[in-house]
Amino acid sequence: MESKILWSTYTFMLLVLCSCAAAYDALDPNGNITIKWDVISWTPDGYVAVVTMNNFQMYRPIMSPGWTLGWTWAKYEVIWAMMGAQATNQGDCSMFKGNIPHSCEKKPEIVDLLPNTPYNQQIANCCKGGVLASMGKDPSAALSAFQIAVGSAGTTNRTVQLPKNFTLLAPGGGYTCGPAKIIRPTLFITADGRRTTSAMMTWRVICTYSQFLASPSPTCCVSLSSFHNGSITPCPSCSCGCRNSSNCVMKTPSGKGVNVPKAVLRCTKHMCPINVHWHVQSNFKNHWSVKVTITNFNYRFNYTQWTLVVQHPNLNNATQVSSFSYMPNLSTNDTALFYGRRSYNDVLMQAGAKGNVHSDLTLEKDGKTIALKKGWAFPRRVYFNGNLCVMPSPKSYPYLPNSAGNK
User: Fold this and answer.
1) Residue 213 pLDDT level (bands cut at 50, 70, 90)
2) Angstrom distance (rounded) from CA 332 to CA 49
3) Where does the record place the COBRA C-terminal domain (predicted)?
4) Residues near 30 by Cβ (< 8 Å), separated by ≥ 6?
């Protein structure tokens, strides 16, 4: 009996340590999504609050169909009205006569409104369809907000009870939210900068991401090639799971579709939704060039607001980047952020003829550190949408000469 207890304790601690390690990101140690409630006025039976959601993750966006925020009311609160967002279910409001609340659910789930929402239902920073850009890509688009009128609640900062059990759902999952904590009331400055007001009460919830919780298997892989070697180093086999007849589909001979519509992924040896290919195109005395291609093997998913993070010691010397937007020195001198350009390639389409995006990079050589031998020209780490991609074994890297040469 004692040995069983010890084994259970050991297993539990191992799971906790694994999940905590997976939640920590060395390239973005402070990344999180912070949800803040600001009570801006009291009502006869509750309060009106503005809820803001900030994505402080440097390179992990929330893609379409967007976020869903949930919680459990502490007492018997109801939502009288909302602007900029809506509850997915009204629930049982039969006890109310006359005015009917927007939602009577004990555990409401809130979603953002769409961009074409009428202006009289909007507030600032709302109505993006739940899509949030990463902070590193576009801080102005990494914010979402809505207004909520709560009834059957406390009417002072001493009688209000905070909601609990917050949840944040997003495509791919992986978010865990902590408890709500009361903080110093937010200060608001008027547009002319001449007056400052204060929230009646403010509380904050912090949600963190874990790749392990989002998916036990990786979701992307990296393949490599170079101009000097005719062979391609593919993604390792079974990088994201092993292939079987039920979880992938082959292209039809005509190339016009797939033969099993219920499946999601195209059949490959690596079985990853995303493949990042790094090809060394040329090597000259003063510079060298790379072509980066991202291919989507998912037949049912478009990656909106996608991001690519690459770790390589020469990326801070990139002199030209085509097609992609580029931000060097993301967290360290050897890490850069790439993302698509708006209305051009910021959406990575589902598997098919248009299911890829690519960019050409030109990098200036530093005579003190440049050395194309021993795999130096290939990335150390690659992240797609914040998830670490599987790299090939260094022993399988294409051979590269150390001296400069023509294509």
Assistant:
1) confident
2) 39
3) 219-253, 256-398
4) 56
Q: What angle do CA 154, 159, 160 make, to 5 degrees?
A: 55
CA atoms 395, 398, 399, 404: torsion sign:
negative
Tens digit of pLDDT for each residue in 327-353?
A: 887 767 789 999 999 889 999 999 988
Distances in Å between the alpha carbon of 103 and those of 64, 123, 148, 271, 358? 24, 19, 11, 42, 46
For residue 148, give every residue at least 6 positions away whose Cβ sits within 8 Å of its Cβ, in sequence order, or none. Answer: 48, 49, 50, 51, 79, 81, 82, 85
Do 175 and 323 lie in one domain? The reply is no
Q: What domain range includes position 80?
A: 29-213
Task: Say if residue 242 is in the same domain as residue 347.
Answer: yes
CB 345 within 8 A of CB 285: no
Q: Yes or no: say if 359 and 322 are a contact pair by the CB < 8 Å rule.
A: yes
Could you report the per-residue pLDDT of 244-282, keeping only the tens digit for each? 767 788 765 445 554 444 668 899 999 999 999 999 998
Instruction: Tell me the backbone φ, ψ of residue 348, rounded to 5 degrees.
Output: -90, 105
Residue reference for tokens 């925020």 = 69
Q: Report the alpha-carbon distance of residue 107 to residue 125 in Å, rounded.
A: 25
Cβ atoms 98, 197 nearer than 8 A: no
25: left (phi over 0), alpha (psi -120 to 50) or beta: beta
Question: Which CATH number covers residue 140?
Answer: 2.60.40.290
Quote the number of domains for the chain: 2
What's the predicted TM-score (pTM) here? 0.82
Indicate whether 53 and 68 sit together in one domain: yes
Claim to verify: residue 227 and residue 197 sit in the same structural domain: no
Residue 204 lies in a domain: yes
Cα radius of gyration rounded to whole Å, the chain? 25
Alpha-carbon distance 358 to 406, whole Å? Answer: 23
Three-class SS state of 205: strand
Distance CA 387, CA 306 (A): 11
